[in-house]
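Researcher: Let's do a round of design. I'm pasting the structure tokens now; please hold your answer until I've finished.
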């Protein structure tokens, strides 16, 4: 059974040893970007390990990883440069907030407390200022980029042409609709970023086919749709990924987190202390948390959007009411008995006011109910105009058409009640 269902089996110690010695190590974008987040000591240790892999011809990245690295590199660099100013601002606010908020406190000498707070924080401010001065100026002289370019020279895959990219987008839409990994968790991203992981995956498979070598994928963060988890514990890559790799390239596939990879890379030649591994783990966990928060924010926005009347309905309603108002009060005014002109104008005003709220606020059943009630009253007035006679057949037919359109729109809106 093991040979038939090999994707469900963990590797033995001997199999891992063989895999490690013969594979290509493939790194994701965050594994490279994190070099700007680690301490210099940790980066140097990491580069020693990567240099050893390069000397053994086991180092490679897909084109997609290189592209995403360059697209995000400046953002990561400036993120840390800006953090010093943000921390300084927080410290400054802390010095002022107590006295501002409790300036009339009857039992405390706020001036004395504030003086002590300022004295206590001055050391922290100096530390932040000194750290900012010492922070690497990577936009001016980027030794991290230079080293990465050296390491991955002649070890970067090729880009796909437009025809292949169109094929992947088509395949991706089908795969994501069926939750086939990897990348389906990115289905809510913009179209230009939605299929990044799938492009990465296909490029890894192509390299495996070409090299006939098994693949160990090293990730700087943990991608939810790459791992098989049980009770919060990551067991191995998703069996679907292992199976697809074996069926298409006839080689094995495994994933390590960056900290686990570094731990297993320790040898007599390269000693790696626990503090270094702990730092890599901490950065990885921080990036995972940020990604989780990002996904939650996207989900929140999606729920907020779905809890509003769709914009197309609002636009359609707006055009319908405006055209109906023009027909009644301008184009055909002379043909109609306008004994209820003021009431009808008031209804149009109320409907348009509520329509504006439907555009910008969460769904409110009472709001929708009142909006539908006003529209129903408008329909009654129009029917009265039609039945009273004295209007041309052209105006009669146009008013009947508007009544029908308004009723159809009301039926659509009732679904959100």
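Researcher: That's everything. Go ahead.
Model: Designed sequence:
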């Amino acid at each position: 059974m093991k040979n038939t269902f090999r994707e469900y089996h963990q590797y033995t110690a001997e199999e891992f040893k063989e895999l490690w010695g013969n594979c290509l190590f493939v790194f994701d974008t965050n594994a490279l970007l994190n070099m700007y987040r680690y301490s210099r000591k940790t980066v140097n240790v990491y580069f020693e390990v990567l240099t050893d892999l390069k000397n053994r011809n086991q180092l490679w990245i897909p084109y997609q990883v290189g592209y995403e690295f360059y697209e995000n590199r400046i953002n990561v660099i400036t993120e840390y440069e800006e953090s010093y100013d943000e921390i300084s601002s927080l410290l400054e606010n802390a010095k002022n907030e107590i006295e501002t908020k409790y300036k009339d406190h009857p039992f405390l000498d706020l001036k004395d407390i504030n003086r002590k707070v300022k004295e206590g924080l001055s050391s922290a401010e100096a530390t932040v200022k000194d750290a900012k001065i010492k922070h690497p100026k990577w936009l001016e002289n980027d030794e991290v980029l230079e080293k990465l370019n050296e390491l991955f020279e002649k070890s970067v895959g090729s880009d796909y042409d437009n025809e292949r990219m169109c094929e992947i987008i088509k395949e991706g839409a089908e795969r994501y609709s069926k939750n086939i990994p990897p990348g389906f968790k990115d289905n809510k991203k913009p179209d230009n970023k939605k299929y990044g992981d799938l492009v990465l995956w296909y490029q890894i498979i192509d390299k495996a086919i070409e090299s006939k070598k098994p693949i160990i994928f090293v990730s700087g963060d943990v991608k939810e749709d790459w791992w098989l988890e049980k009770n919060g514990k990551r067991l191995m890559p998703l069996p679907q990924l292992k199976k697809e790799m074996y069926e298409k390239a006839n080689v094995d596939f495994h994933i390590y987190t960056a900290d686990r990879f570094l731990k297993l890379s320790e040898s007599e030649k390269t000693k790696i202390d626990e503090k270094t591994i702990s730092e890599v783990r901490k950065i990885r966990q921080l990036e995972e948390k940020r990604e989780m928060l990002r996904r939650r924010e996207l989900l929140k926005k999606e729920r907020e959007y779905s809890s509003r009347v769709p914009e197309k309905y609002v636009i359609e309603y707006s055009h319908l009411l405006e055209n109906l108002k023009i027909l009644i009060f301008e184009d055909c005014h002379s043909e109609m008995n306008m004994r209820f002109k003021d009431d009808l104008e008031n209804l149009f005003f109320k409907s348009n006011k509520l329509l504006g709220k439907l555009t910008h606020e969460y769904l409110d059943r009472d709001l929708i109910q009142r909006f539908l009630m006003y529209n129903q009253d408008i329909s009654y007035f129009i029917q009265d105009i039609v039945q009273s006679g004295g209007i041309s057949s052209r105006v009669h037919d146009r008013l009947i058409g508007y009544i029908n359109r308004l009723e159809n729109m009301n039926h659509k809106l009732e679904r959100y009640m």
